[in-house]
Amino acid sequence: MAVQNTAVAAANGSATFTLNANSSLGDWRVILYEPFGGSVYAVTPFTVVDAENPSADVSVDNGLISSGVSAGGQVVYSIQITNLGPSDAATIQLTDTVPPNTTFHSFGQLSGPTFTCTSPNVGETGTTTCTITSLARDESAVFVATYVVDSVANGTVISNTASVSSATADPKPDNDSSTADVDVINAPCQLSTPDNITVSADSGQAGAVVTYNTPTGTGDCGTTTTGENGETISPITCNPASGSFFPVGTSTVICSAQTGAAVGFQVTVNNPGSLSISLNGPTSITIECGVEFADPAASAIDGSGQSVPVTVSYSGGFNPDTPATGTYTGTYTATDGTNSVSTTRSITVSDTEAPAITVNGANPYRIITGSCIPFVDPGASALDDCAGPKPVTSTISGPGGATSVNNNVPGTYTVTYTATDGTHQGTATRTVLVGNFNQDESDQPQSSNQPPTITLNGDAQVFIECGTPFNDPGATATVCGNAVSVTTTGTVDIHSPGTYSITYSATANNQTVETTRVVTVGPDNTAPTIEVLGPNPMTVECHTTFTDPGATAHDACAGDFAATASGTVNANVVGTYTVNYNASDPSGHAAAPVTRTVNVVDTTAPIVTAPANVTVNTGPGATSCGTSVSDATLGTASANDSCAGPLSVTRTGVPAGNVFPVGTTTITYTANDGYNTGTATQTVTVIDNTLPTISCPSNITLEPSCPSGAIATYATPVGQDNCPGSTTTRTAGLASGSVFPIGTTTVTHVVTDASGNTASCSFTVTVLTPQAVIQNMINTINGLPLSGSQKQGLISKLTAASDAINQGKTNVACNKLSDFISQVSSFIGNGQLTSAQGQPLINSANHIRNTIGCTNLPCT
Predict the structure, then answer these.
(1) Which residues, other chains included, contact 98 with Cβ-Cβ below 8 Å and sequence gap of 6+?
(2) Strand ranges in 294-448 using DSSP code E only, listed in sequence order
(3) Same CATH topology for 276-350 and 356-441?
(4) 256 CB contacts (<8 Å, ≥6 apart)?
(5) What's the rounded Cα separation, in Å, for the pair 164 and 175?
(6) Which of 32, 63, 253, 307 could make a disulfide contact with 42, Cβ separation 3.0–4.6 Å?
(7) Could you give the CA distance from residue 747 to residue 712 in angstroms, rounded to a whole number?
């Protein structure tokens, strides 16, 4: 299509296009755009036709619905006829011949104006021919052709050609035929070939609900899946689905697999019965509020299949020309003689469209840079199909974030208009161009030598109450968009009621312009407010001094002054007190009273004075590890409180009976003033100065029983003390059970108590010499009941042994002592001596013998 460019001389100008009759037939668009920035403002389409010599480009397009075709299966084609115009077409004929290597199964129309078709019988070959008297421009019709493939080899090409013709001249005959080819293969999915179905219409209906079995598939036809709403999607689906309502006549059903295989069949509904009616289109329709309702109506036929007129009535005052929102019912009725049938359709009218906005005046709107006349928006109007006229609001956006049109700043400004019907919002825009245009191109002429324009910021009449701060909002002045300085004169005394004038003046182009703002300071009608100074609530320590920080009254007109206080506070008595503050301004307006809460508190603990610390001794002869200390010795504590004065004192820590143990004991003295507790402590120290006691056994005398001496055993002394923890230590001599040497040994034990006090005792262990033992034996013999000669015989043996020991003649001594033992044993044996009298002598003789080496027995 050719392109023509024509400039529009002015914003509200016009342009003329001249079209060549030989080459201009068809669709055109007029595009209005801004040549500098390229912005498109409007697009209007139109179509050029030659009424005397109509022409129509009627095209046909043939395509495959099934993607995999196998021998014995179906091949399904979609054939679409379209009138591309520019004129309506007359006497349209579509022909489609059964492809070689196939037989006819079905041929049906899916959509578009109804054609009349004749087809071969099922299982035969031939040509389908469909005709219609006219096809309007841009109308189209879609058909489905289904053929069964013969038993042919893989690779065989199935080729189908559809052709269309028209009685109207066709400028483009190249698209009057279309061929679709497909190769026969071992398709992954092979669908069974369904039979065509013929049924009778349901009673009272111009159609029937038809159920059928979905074709079965072999091979990979897909898997069962789940849809977005949780529904189950089978591998093989059909449309219309089984259980759908089929109108009287022939309808085509297409079944397809997920992997591409497709088959088709026809459902024919006959009307052998009486009067019946069915809806055209859906049983429920949603339309837009205010938009004329194009009722799809309903169809009715009588028992012979002839059409019967249908009338419609609507509920709830439904107006199909201008429907209002709501839900309505359309009742469709067909009458044939005395018979009548009806059906209904639900009609929902909703508001989903925003108001339509019409921009008034020039768009784009051109302003010459520097124009002195401000931009005045011509505005816009809004009309809603449902709600009628609606108010329009607008905003402006421009260079640098501008929110108004500035005649001195070139650029593109956008006025955005907005209108709402309460549910949906519509918008439209106007482009305002500030630039260097010719005078005849401008929608707003330029002016010069203008006086300044003063614009007050805020109101020209201002009323404030006495004392209310006044901040002059000032004024601005411009000339042709350029700022001019403004001079301000006049003052306002906000504390003196009266009327004041503030004058603003600006001078430009030798012209001075003034404007005045009047400020009225009204009487004082506002009471003062009181501000409590210092903390509130306030805390005062008992028995100190309370100084009131006071309060200040703030009055907008009279200023600040002191508030009057009332109420007393006794700083010597704990409690909560209230100080009241009142104030009135010179106009007699009383402030709302305020109060201060003063809490007199006692947070200081009493001072407790404890008696002096005490130190005592346990003393000599003490039997316990402590001592008694009298209350008089302990003394008396005292307490004094800054608020309550002298207080009684209690004590803790004194042992029962005032008996204090050795060491330091702390006594705590406590006093409470009712709020706080004070304490002090006294220590009582008991020193253990009592000596421990210890007792030793008597001195021990032993005969020697071996050359080293004799074993001495004794009860080991253990010291005693009034306090636990004493220890006893042997400091001299040998331990009990030791072999003591011949001679005298002194044994000493010392006891030390826990406080370091000590005591000791000693005893001796004497081991006799053999000679001394012999002398003791002689003394014993002299006292025995023996004759003189018998005594003398024993004594002579002992004396001889003693002499031999003295002379170092051990053998002689051993023999003499042995003789002595034998003689004493004989006396015991013949009864001259008892065992008690004689055995000690024998024992002593054996001791001496072992001591001087006659025998080698252990020491005893």
Answers:
(1) 104, 120, 124, 125, 126, 127, 128, 147
(2) 298-301, 307-308, 310-314, 326-336, 339-350, 356-359, 365-368, 380-384, 388-390, 393-397, 411-420, 425-435
(3) yes
(4) 65, 66, 236, 237, 238, 262, 263
(5) 9
(6) 32
(7) 11
Q: How many CA atoms lie within 13 A of 329 on its CB side?
A: 6
764: how many CB neighbours lie within 10 A of its CB? 15
Give the whole-angstrom CA distance, residue 512 versus residue 231. Answer: 82
pLDDT one-digit tens code per residue, 283-302: 999 998 888 999 999 888 87
Residues 330-370: tens digit of each pLDDT: 988 888 776 777 889 999 999 888 899 999 999 999 988 87
CATH homologous superfamily for 56-186?
ntegrin, alpha v. Chain A, domain 4 (2.60.40.1530)
Q: What is the pLDDT of residue 219?
A: 83
Q: How far apart are CA 157 and CA 101, in angstroms?
A: 9
Contact 295, 330 (CB under 8 A): yes
pLDDT tens, 470-520?
899 999 988 766 788 999 999 998 888 889 999 999 988 788 999 999 999
Mean pLDDT of 525-543: 92
The CATH homologous superfamily for domain 453-522 is Immunoglobulins (2.60.40.10)
Task: Give the SS3 label for residue 797.
Answer: helix
- CB 754: neighbour CB atoms within 10 A? 15
Phi, psi of 813 (to 5 degrees): -65, -40
Q: What are the residue ranges spanned by the domains of the chain?
A: 1-48, 56-186, 188-221+233-273, 276-350, 356-441, 453-522, 529-601, 607-687, 700-767, 770-852
Name the residue type at position 856: N
Report the C-alpha gap between 130 and 119 in whole angstroms.
Answer: 9
Q: Is 730 helix (H, G, I), strand (E, B) or coil?
A: strand
Q: Roughly how many angstroms between the first and final C-alpha of the chain, as a whole number? A: 152
Mean local confidence (pLDDT), 146-175: 93
Token pair listed for 668? 């705590």
> Which residue type occupies 80?
Q
Q: Which CATH homologous superfamily contains domain 356-441?
A: Immunoglobulins (2.60.40.10)
Average pLDDT over residues 261-267: 85
More confident residue, 651 or 256: 651
Angle at Cα 384 formed by Cα 382 and Cα 389, nearest 5°?
50
Residues, the chain = 860
Q: Over 70: is that where the pLDDT of 36 sits? A: no
Tokens representing residue 492 in the block: 């306002």
If we measure between CA atoms, which residue out of 203, 386, 388 comes closest to residue 278?
203
**How far apart are alpha carbons 434 and 370 in whole angstroms?**
9
Q: Which CATH number fits domain 188-221+233-273: 2.60.40, 3.30.70, 2.60.420, 1.10.1740?
A: 2.60.40
What percent of the chain is modeled with pLDDT above 70? 92
Separation between Cα atoms, residue 637 and residue 251, nearest integer Å: 120
What is the torsion angle, in degrees rounded to the nearest 10, for the CA atoms of residue 476, residue 480, residue 483 and residue 485?
-70
Alpha carbons 709 and 742: distance in angstroms, whole number: 5
- Give the pLDDT of residue 34: 57
C-alpha to C-alpha distance for 200 and 270, rounded to whole angstroms: 5
DSSP E strands in 648-699: the ranges are 650-652, 659-661, 663-672, 677-687
- For 141, the 3-state DSSP assignment is strand
The domain over range 529-601 is classified in CATH as 3.40.50.150: no
Fold of 607-687: Immunoglobulin-like (2.60.40)
In angstroms, rounded to a whole number, what is the distance separating the alpha carbons of residues 113 and 60?
Answer: 15
Rg, Å, the chain Cα set: 69
Q: Which residues contact 273 (CB under 8 A, 6 or more apart)?
A: 200, 201, 203, 303
State the number of CA atoms in the 13 A half-sphere of 171 facing the CB.
Answer: 18
